[in-house]
Batch of 3 targets.
Target 1
Amino acid sequence: MTDPGRTDQERFIFGLPKAELHLHIEGTLEPEMMFALAARNGVPLPYPDVEAVRAAYVFGDLQSFLDVYYAGCAVLVTEQDFYELTTAYLARAADQGVTHAEIFFDPQTHTDRGIPFRTVVNGICRALEDGERRLGVTWRLILCFLRDLGAEAAMATLERALPFRHLIAAVGLDSAELGHPPRAFEEVFRRARAEGLSCVAHAGEEGPPEYIWEALDLLHVHRIDHGVRCWEDQQLVDRLRDDHVPLTVCPFSNVKLGVFPDLAHHNLANLLRLGLRVTVNSDDPAYFGGYVGDNLVAAAEALALERDEIVQMARNSFVASFLDEADRHRRLAQLDRFARDG
Ligand code: HPA
Ligand code: ZN
């Protein structure tokens, strides 16, 4: 079916089957839903209307974004809220070609305000199960520790998650990067691995290449979230390439948070052309201006990506995922058919 609102390139990119591997579910809270949930839960908002919320989304760095992002989370109270948040994300993602989503959630943001862990995880997972049935989008859930709250709080969060272990595929590390190096979480990640959980970590977004080395060598991560500052360390670039370490790159996020001045100066294409396992993701799409297809369309245009480079990044997304081997091969075959036949 042709969609008169989309160009040929957009139709190709949106239709291309892809996995999203770097997505904070709390970062999909669109201003309209923020207002609806605030009214339903009686939570005051510091904005008069939706337009004022959007106008406030101008960030100079990661911390200035996080302040707004954590404030927005206050409207998420009931299991139904988490269900509706996740359901809305899945509809948008599926419309942009996502057939598999590995989703971060930040339990400490909610448990620290008195929301029970089970309320958060049950709401998200019920939506993911319904989404898989209705839209065919498969999923994994990744529990992120807030690095600025420290390793002790992270360990307590891991303990609290263990009754829900069957629903969680991996642990990650997010929030304010500078001054909170991965090495502080070595013991927490060791414990997570002992429970059979896989590991990922945000590193090299604002933090130095050293944080990427630590995530690899001390936390034993399966992929690096962001990782774009690897560029400053040739030995690290070689290591990432030789070990096929996936990078979950988020172009809109990097520009909105001032990591690159604009998309034309993003190092995504350089990293890809050096043979690194780059994937494109949306991070916090409600705050950064678009979902994964939007990120790919804009990056492809700004960086003059070839069609086979776009397909390569979609392939990488399945290769880098936590899908089992049989499923991964089925998805790659599906992707190759789409790339061949359009
Ligand atoms: N970086 C770090 N932590 C986060 C982000 C991000 O972009 N979004 C939500 N938590
Ligand atoms: Zn992120």
Note: The first strand starts at residue 18 and ends at 20.
Target 2
Amino acid sequence: MFPLKNLTKFCTKCRCISSHAEGLKLSEQSWNFINGTRCAGAGETSFQLFEPSTGSKLSTITDSNASDVDNAVSSARKTFKTWSRFSGMERAEILRNAGRLLRERSQDLAKTEVVDAGKPLWEAEWDIQTTYDCFEYFAGLSPTISGQHLKMSGENWAYTIRQPIGVVGAIGAWNFPLQIASWKIAPALASGNTVVFKPSPLTPINAVVLAEILKEAGLPDGALNIVQGQGETGQLICKHPGVNKITFTGSVPTGKLVSQTAAETLKRVTLELGGKSPLIIFEDADLKNAVNGAMMANYLTQGQVCNNATRVFVHESIHDQFVQLVSDELKKIKVGDPHSNDTTMGALISEDHLNKVLGYVQSAADEGAQVTGGKKLQVSGLPGGYFMEPCMLVGCTDNMKAVKEEIFGPVMSVLKFSTEEEVLERANNTHFGLAGGVFTQNLARGHRVAAALEGGVLWVNNYNTFSVELPFGGLKQSGYGRENGMAAIEHYTELKTVYVESGDVWTPYSTT
Ligand code: NDP
């Protein structure tokens, strides 16, 4: 078992977990997990792992090359022959065990997620809860996967079989490392597939820990393999002829590359991509709740959430009041050490990403927006951390770069509107279609607007509440396919139709 206790022992001075903590040396660990065993990648390139809240280097990790991916796929193909024949109840028992182990170790896992992703501890704890919820939910669904039986004419009948697809290649982003992994791995395994998962190179740690937990839960070796690496390793998975389906979470441009490559072998593909979602606040909204909703829609995980509503359209009659209330709320956000219990916002994922987000804030200022916050922050005791002030942009127009493009940072753009018709037109005027929200006390209008907004996940009078029981995914260029809910099972299974004849075979050619 991976020594989690050591992994979460931090040096209190420099917060290094590689050289000061007892036991585990991250740099010496093998970061791949193939056929039930930790092993090192064999690529000639590598990437460095930094802790977002300190900027200190944690490890250097070797990229997986073609032979690593080949080994992982072969191991998954071999195990598919047995795992796909387990009954739903047998698979459920293992996934339930995994859920229990994840619950028992949730504190350690959350602390590791804080080191890896820079998000505050309270949020990481939340993410781990969504992870074990996911395993327990799909454990419950596994025995229910079934086909149909149909009576046909005469002595004919037919049935359908819902079967696993085969080997699933799964590629993840960095903002919710364990949650993204579980949203892919749990339904894929529950449906009888085997998996090769590549986490983001920015957050590689917990994927291997999860694989070890699943092994301890009883998962056969080879059913889940982890390969570390960068984009090239991802491409190797998408190209591999032994992979039958790709499930990808990441940006729109990478999603397009993934789908192009997967098309060469006609793999099934699910894409969970970026967004620039709208939140519409009408003049009759409960303003306190609308402000809270806008905060939830913009500042969780340092704003690095795909479905965040970063374009907040506020009716002109309440615009100034809304802006004042959000400014007051921004002052209450405590940016700081993500390991502290009272921190409400942690560090952005990397120095490059921080600079990219600050660049968007500057571009908005250059284009005439009034900027509140949005500066790089020095947190006491953590001089190397990638922190910034949460930001609100006021006086925005639809064509500003910061309003049109996904920033993926704690930056809310506020836009004024006058009529429902006008705001719907503007809200939908984007190639993204992941999510959206509306605040109004007129419920007929709330439902009308939810139906009209072009997004896969909508909220009426709230934002960013989630549950594994409900499907999640985007429209337009925010992707296709759905994760979570019963809908996910459809994306990890194929349907077969079987016709059965119990009587004689009729033919026009026979004379007797
Ligand atoms: P990227 O698209 O940059 O990367 C996603 C993953 O794909 C990484 O593991 C990356 O490795 C890998 N990758 C890069 N190039 C290729 C390639 N050519 N073929 C296969 N894999 C490749 O996204 P980020 O990791 O930066 O994540 C942020 C994005 O993810 C945002 O746009 C966000 O909206 C989206 N997202 C969507 C969610 C959803 O459910 N809709 C949820 C969470 C995030 P490497 O890092 O080395 O490039």
Note: The radius of gyration is 24 Å.
Target 3
Amino acid sequence: MKTVVILGAQWGDEGKGKIVHLLSDRADVVCRYQGGNNAGHTVVSGGKKWVFHLLPSGILKEKKACIIGNGVVLDPYAFSEEMTLVQNEGVDTASRLYVSDRAHLIMPYHRALDSMYEESLGIGTTKRGIGPAYSYKYARIGIRLCDLDEREYLEWITKRALDEVNATIVGKYGRNPVTVREVMDALEEYGEIMKGYVTDTSRLLAEYLKEGRRIIFEGAQGVLLDVDFGTYPYVTSSNPVTGGVLTGLGIGPGAVGQVLGVVKAYTTRVGEGPFPTELEGPTGESIRERGCEFGASTGRPRRCGWFDAVAVRYAVRVSGVQALAMTKFDVLDGIDRLPVCTGYRIDGRDTDRFPANVFVLERAVPVYEEFAGWESTAGVKRYEDLPAEATRYIAALEKLIGVPISIVSTGPDETETIIRGPLAVDAG
Ligand code: IMP
């Protein structure tokens, strides 16, 4: 199968946007399968920097089909804003972007609820309404794109949703109630924005797969933020893991050719939650500055730390990752000694397992192995041109994690990349 899943194998922000954009040259189709406009996928192309929150990162490559699957929660205002931005720059998006009719809509009240919940829960969410939209989906009071033309249904489901919305907004937070009229007006606007994009994307994908097209399944966030496998409750509300590809697009397991995990050469996290290798002093600050580690969605400074091989090994296992792409390698240039976390000491015991409970993970003290640093890797395009210390670092990580590092990114531009392969999208 000439398809590849590209997912984050840390806490998000691994540089998936660059890798997807780069590999989309070799693909025909790029699909998003989960998350919403909480993502921030940065792409540098032709000297210009783009940040995509919702649109698949293949959108800049004209003639590539882009799919937003049923597993995504979609805010039409964010969709419209991003489409306008891309179109204003002269990118032709006509007849190549498809949105699933079964995807759930992010409603204005979901955004309001996200902010209210955040005050009491302190997860550090993006406040884009992602969590409430997924909660309503599972509570069977969500509104989907396929509902937009069915006025009677819309009124019926809106009333059911508003019972819950107002019980919380009015009952718990003492705000003004949301009216059916307001929601129906917003839905009318949603219908206008989404006209012409909505289709049965699972069916479309089945056709593409039958034709042997090369497809990228683009994950958002990362495995350690997955609602099932991440550092719960400090997680997002969807499944970035490979399992999410199948449920988020309506395809079978045979459709997945290769799973490529993206990791940074170090670790970052935005929002709250445990982070064993976090560096709180000047070294962390220096990595933040050099790596421009500020949230692409919210501008928040990202927490930075050393590479955590325990966490990545775990992410690789639960997602069936077969190869890694390592980004921001050059950000480590010039650092003398590079500690890598190879195990945790928890309550006086050594372990190489990633604990399920966050209070336990908070107590984990990283066990480090140190590697010699190197002078410069910035912009290097061939593996043979890397300094020996850099290839030693890569080889050591491959051994610790158990999968090959097939791509190494040495700068933000798509050309600043070493591709060692093999990649499923290159299959003949
Ligand atoms: P939510 O996805 O907005 O509900 O936020 C839940 C958690 O996931 C918070 O800690 C966010 O900072 C984090 N998060 C959501 N999207 C991203 C992302 O694209 N990159 C990194 N962290 C993210």
Note: The radius of gyration is 22 Å.
